[in-house]
Design goal:
Radius of gyration: 18 Å
Helix content: 10-25%
Distance between the termini: 30 Å
Low-confidence stretches: none
Order of helices and strands: EEEEEHH
Number of helices: 2
Largest sheet: 5 strands, mixed
Strand content: 15-25%
Number of domains: 2
Bound molecules: heme C
Number of strands: 5
């Protein structure tokens, strides 16, 4: 799956792909590979419009990327999906690997064990909660609780909420969400 982030290039007067993270996951082995549109040759981003092309072998991968994708990309499957958003590909693809996902990287990246295993705690009734890093807490967990989880019509939130979900979320936040 590739996620283009577009920007306006004022000088060239065009709308162009600025960031282009790419992730691929094997359903059978759970191995996941990461790339970003940074040239191996120049170390610069390879940008362009709709017709942008490059060879996957020519861009940075999990062996050399400076940004550790697994700070956020963790859990049973590698993908980070809020159900019902445009990147929710779960109705077209089976994103749940047979084996818990493991990053392919010679830099020691890992998918650390779950913070809450599937079935152990309110929020983990449908999926595990990935290990809590500062990034995971602030980019994923808090947003999910406020906006999409357990469903977008009635998100749990947590501030001052001592309900079923609220207590579990507050415990997760107290545990490891501070820098
Ligand atoms: C600070 C947290 C964070 C880091 C680090 C991060 N991502 Fe993501 N990534 C996200 C979030 C959050 C989403 C979901 C975006 C959305 O809902 O719009 C996402 C989505 C994606 C997607 C779309 C598929 C999916 O999982 O939803 C790709 C591809 C992707 N990221 C690639 C990468 C790559 C490659 C790296 C490392 C170079 C990386 N990301 C690092 C937070 C992060
Ligand atoms: C009714 C089932 C259900 C419950 C309950 C639920 N979730 Fe989810 N959640 C999902 C589904 C489906 C996804 C889609 C992504 C996937 O499977 O990877 C998701 C995705 C997420 C993500 C995005 C990260 C990722 O790996 O894709 C976070 C964070 C999250 N949930 C947190 C929570 C929290 C916090 C609660 C408790 C308030 C909660 N969830 C309760 C079904 C649920």
């Amino acid at each position: 799956m590739a996620l283009p982030r577009w920007r306006i290039n004022e000088a060239a007067g065009i709308n162009e792909v600025n960031l282009l993270g790419i992730i691929c996951q094997s359903q059978t082995t759970g191995k996941a590979c990461f790339w970003d549109n940074i040239s191996k040759e120049t170390g610069q981003r390879i940008r362009g419009g709709e017709d942008l092309t490059f060879k996957i072998a020519d861009i940075h991968n999990g062996d050399m990327l400076g940004e550790n994708c697994t700070q956020c990309h963790r859990g049973k499957n590698v993908f980070l999906i809020h159900p019902g958003t445009t990147i929710d590909i779960s109705s077209d693809y089976d994103i749940d690997p047979n084996v818990r996902y493991q990053p392919v990287s010679s830099q020691g990246w890992t998918n650390p064990p779950a913070f809450t295993e599937l079935g152990d705690g309110a929020c983990a009734s449908c999926h595990e909660i990935g290990d809590l890093s500062f990034s995971y807490c602030n980019m994923l967990l808090k947003k999910a609780a406020n906006l999409t989880m357990p469903n977008a019509d009635n998100p749990a939130g947590w501030v001052g909420d001592d309900s079923f979900y609220g207590t579990h979320i507050q415990a997760m936040i107290d545990d490891r969400c501070s820098p």
